[in-house]
Amino acid sequence: MARSAVLGLPRIGPDRELKFALESYWAGRTGAAELQETARGLRAASWRRAQAAGLDVIPSGEFSLYDHVLDTAWALGAIPQRFGDAGRDRSELAGYFALARGTADARPLEMTKWFDTNYHYLVPELHPGQTFALDASHWLTQFHEAGALGVQTRPVVLGPFSFLLLSKGLDRPLDLLETLVPVYGQLVRELAAAGVRELQLDEPALALDRAPGELDAFERAFRALAVEAAEAGVEIALATYFAGLDTSGALERVLALGAAEVHLDLVRAPSQLEPALAALAALGGASRTRLSLGVLDGRNVWAADLDVALDRIDRATAALGSDRVTIAPSCSLLHVPYTAAREDGIDPEVRGWLAFAAEKLDELRTLHAAAGAVKRDALLAPAREAISSRRTSKHTNDPAVRERAGALSTADYDRAAPYPERRAAQRERVPLPDLPSTTIGSYPQTPEIRAKRRELRAGAIDEAAYERFLEGEIDHVVEVQERLGLDVLVHGEPERNDMVEYFGERLAGFAFSAAGWVQSYGSRCVKPPILYGDVSRPRPMTVRWWQYAQSRTAKPMKGMLTGPVTILQWSFVRDDQPRQETATQIALAIQDEVLDLERAGAFAIQVDEAALREGLPLQRAQQDEYVRWAVDSFRLTVAPARPDTQVHTHMCYSEFTEIMEHIVRLDADVISIEASRSDMDVLDAFTGAHGIEYPNEIGPGVYDIHSPRVPSPEEVERLLELAESRVGRERLWVNPDCGLKTRRWEEVLPALEAMMEAAKRRRAAA
Ligand code: GLN
Ligand code: ZN
After folding, report:
1. Phi, psi of 430 (to 5 degrees)
2. Where, in this chain's numbering, is L-methionine bound (predicted)?
3. Quick check: CB of 499 below 6 Å from ligand 1?
4. Which amino acids are annotated as binding site for Zn(2+), given as ranges?
């Protein structure tokens, strides 16, 4: 009989209980005991739900008070020196949170994206000569807790290979495997002594492009650990996810290692099933390795096509026998919300197509039952009905949208004139000084703005009062910019709580959950819009605010839009058509807004693509195709803008070297990027230093908006000089790194003053 399993469960709490418990603990309102109590309660509830769903393999140890990579570093004793005594007693929560959040004297560990998810982990810091000292209590505690509830769990541990590759501080991190593997060996022994029979070793790093030497290192490490595990009587289930091992080069090697089980993500990479079965067949009776089939999408919120999943399960069962098959979601359910059933604000038809974590457990149960059954139709009927309703619904099929997208030709992706002609037309329409200055869009989202939004939602004020309030905010923002002498103004985005949600709420094809939170990092959660249908724009979304703002000033007011790729990237996106098609639909919807802004008189229109780069597939072989359609979507969005309309884009990161040719192909008139923290080094990518020179205008950020620190005019001047020496004055704009919405006015005003003073000095310099 096949087993059912999950690699991990959501942990923030169905009502974000962990978030609130953490914040209360950090604020000193409650103590460690209360926080631990909440955490215990959340774990117990998760295990009970998993048990009630009939799961054969239930995880433990993946629950974290902040982050599972931090848990691993903490347990291994990889604690940077600047934290002093923290970690001497690893039950001390204050030390643990010091690494996560920093202290007065020690900056926290750096945070970065967990593979291609919107979850962020803390980057372990290692140094040459690094040693480790295990404290296994994280896993022991959770395993015993579950045991006390009558639940035998499979502890989840981030493997040594991925741990090292996710860390920073070492040129050759894998050299440390030799030191680290014995520590993992000790962990396995301690877990065995506590009664653990099976351990899930997560090695997601195996699914990225890997050099043969790296795989050699992995293989040596795994074999050494397997010897320890065998002696201790512990099975190792090796889990990979987010991409395919067939294309990373690791598949055959990993399957030949004799692991008790290997988990493959068959949602992201269904192509690896056949080669995996072939590889196991080639090993013959020598291999008893079970295959764990990740057939339900752990990264998205849609009810699965169970027939597709069953087909995969059947093929594996036929090849291996059912006792060597485990049925599972593709990855941990950390990346989806708790339960769709309570989302009664979502159209019931659409809600029926959703599967959050709870519904995925139901799907697993159904799959498990169906896999062993001769007569499946009755079991599968409800799921089939959801799939077919979704396929034929008018929500997913808007003929007008399809016709418009279907009629596109290559010319629809090009602006009417090449950049040099556009530049001339734009300068004629609106003369700008050397080093024109602007900002990225948002101004401080003050507590007053948030409070007003809450009042509106609660019905305490009406729409008209809210709009009057927003007009007052815009008045202020415009006044400030005029006083500072900025050249291209913005309205400040006070009406937007979020740059994607605002547009999602105004586009057809999006739904919003009430409690669909997923952890982003620590106590922070996001509630991504759910893009379920064909996308169109019923009416203008921003024109009213732009018009009001422009009416307050003679300076050009920049229109401000979010681009199609970023909307896609920060939403749960329909999986019943290629992402590229969905991106085209969004692009056309945003294009409507571009044209309406233009008709209303906008000279400059910015289309933000903050998330373009983070959408890059994990494996190089797939990246080109993605960037091609991502850039096409941007081009489509702005293509029909007149030559004398200045198209801006903004990207919040500083790694462009690898994607420069695509950035050039965006063909925005002006691009603003994050640059201050790299001391303008990012501009090397734009100067031709790596082979491609960026031909259009560029605004490298001249101060860091992520920090409350106010720069001096001299600092900004120096950065501007550096920028001029790289790209020349002709093409250079002056702006901050990103939007200002997270900052306070007390910081924004002096910082922008410094920026404008620096611009003035540079303009005066011959
Ligand atoms: N226009 C947005 C803002 O200023 C851009 C933010 C972003 O790219 N992250 O807030
Ligand atoms: Zn930004």
Report:
1. -135, 100
2. 440-442, 493, 608
3. yes
4. 650, 652, 674, 738
Task: Give the DSSP H/E element, type plus range, for residue 232.
Answer: helix 212-232
Burial class (CB in 10 A: 0-12, 13-18, 19+), 179: middle
Ligand in closest contact with the CA of 565: 1
Smallest-distance ligand from the CA of 563: 1
Q: Whose CA is nearest to atom 3 of ligand 1?
A: 739
Report ipTM (2 d.p.).
Answer: 0.99
| Lookup result for tokens 């959703």 | 354
- Asked if 15 and 119 touch (Cβ cutoff 8 Å), the reply is no
Q: Which residue's CA is the nearest one to ligand 1's atom 8?
A: 610
- Taking the CA of 498 as reference, the closest ligand is 1
Question: 308 C-alpha to center of ligand 1: Å?
Answer: 40
What Rg value do the Cα atoms of the chain yield, rounded?
27
**What ligand 1 atom has the least distance to the C-alpha of 499?**
2
Cβ of 265 closer than 6 Å to ligand 1, yes or no, is no
Instruction: Give, in words, the CATH class of 418-501+537-764.
Output: alpha beta
Domain ranges (residues) in the chain: 3-336+344-392, 418-501+537-764
What is the SS3 assignment for 678-731? HCCHHHHHHECCCCCECCCEEEEECCCCCCCCCCCHHHHHHHHHHHHHHHCCCC
| Chunked mean pLDDT (size 10), the chain, 766 residues | 97 98 98 98 98 97 98 98 93 96 92 95 96 98 98 98 98 98 98 98 97 97 98 98 92 97 98 98 94 98 98 98 98 98 97 98 98 95 96 96 98 98 98 98 98 97 98 98 98 96 98 97 96 98 98 98 98 98 98 98 98 94 96 98 98 87 97 93 91 95 93 97 95 97 96 98 92
For 111-243, strand residue ranges (E) read 111-113, 120-122, 153-158, 198-202, 235-239
With a 6 Å cutoff on the Cβ, whether 208 touches ligand 1 is no
User: Identical fold at 3-336+344-392 and 418-501+537-764?
Assistant: yes
Binding residues for 5-methyltetrahydropteroyltri-L-glutamate: 16-19, 113, 118, 524-525, 570, 614
Per DSSP, the three-state class of 531 is strand
Q: Please, are residues 606 and 558 in contact by the beta-carbon 8 Å criterion?
A: yes
643 close to 417: Cβ distance less than 8 angstroms: yes
Q: Which fold has domain 3-336+344-392?
A: TIM Barrel (3.20.20)
Distance (Å, rounded) from C-alpha 484 to C-alpha 443? 14
CB within 8 Å of 116: residues ≥ 6 apart? 242, 614, 615, 616, 617, 618
| Residue 576 burial (CB count, 10 A) | 15
**Ligand 1 centroid – CA 498 distance (Å):** 9
Is 706 considered catalytic here? yes
| Entry pTM | 0.96
Is ligand 1 within 6 A of the CB of residue 609?
A: no
H runs (alpha helix) in 485-542: 501-504
CA of 650 to the centre of ligand 1 (A): 8
Amino acid at 325: V
User: In what order do the strands lie in the sheet containing 508-511?
Assistant: 508-511, 530-536, 572-573
